[in-house]
Amino acid sequence: MxxxxxxxxxxxxxxxxxxxxxxxxxxxxxxxxNAVTPTPTxxxxxxxxxxxxxxxxxxxxxxxxxxxxxxxxxxxTGEEAYAIYADEVQDHLAxxxxxxxxxxxxxxxxxxxxxxxxxxxxxxxxPSRKAMFKMATSDEYIESEKHRSAGLxxxxxxxxxxxxxxx
Amino acid sequence: MEVTNKVIPxxxxxxxxxxxxxxxxxxxxxxxxxxxxxxxxxxxxxELSGKEAYTIYAMEVQExxxxxxxxxxxxxxxxxxMLGEVEDLWxxxxxxxxPSRKAMLEMMMDADYQESEKHRSAGLxxxxxxxxxxxxx
Lengths: 167, 137
Prior knowledge:
Chain A is α+β, with helices and mostly antiparallel strands.
């Protein structure tokens, strides 16, 4: 009987240690907001900084039903409308020397917590900020972008400077 | 919207490694936030920053990845947010591709990996790790 009590105690102690493991911010949540269009500061950022290659890490959340700005009737889901954009954008990317290096559906979160998990992650490599800006302001891109904003509830887009895992 | 970075998975997240499709390739998207100063669990003295301690882990983990047939797709420093708002922006993003959930679990359970992991938890304030299934876009 004593043995079981001791075992029980050890199990509780180990669980406690595991739960309190090192992280001082264990339950501190931070706030984030997905967006469809960049702020003026974010747009201005394209004119600043050096002209080196970077990765754009897109965390995407779709609308349930697509809604086009021009009010057209549609039976598409948000994901379906965005898929039209994703297909067309490949050409626009190629024109400025950019490429999609990863696109995938989110299965689950294995670490951390998010109030509303994103649907898809897409990573694009651009040769420079200038190249991305050039694409985003071209007429053809703006035509394809209608499907993007029709399908997209919001997103984060994180700019990452690639290195051999040197931070 | 709320987001909480963590250092260790919860029980449900651990159980997930053995549920559903455990045999198909997955890409893990790590959004990483470092501690200012490294803190080792064994209480050792260190002058390392969180980022420096994590970098030791990042170097060593390459071998552990290789052993289970996984690889790093890319890793880099976050320079800015181009779209959206985040209260406390992550420091770094790293993506690793694993042949399966099973392979990733195998790596995490390996004694050599756990030795390297000491540098990870010393340097890491917290992270999100998003499991994605590639090719559905």
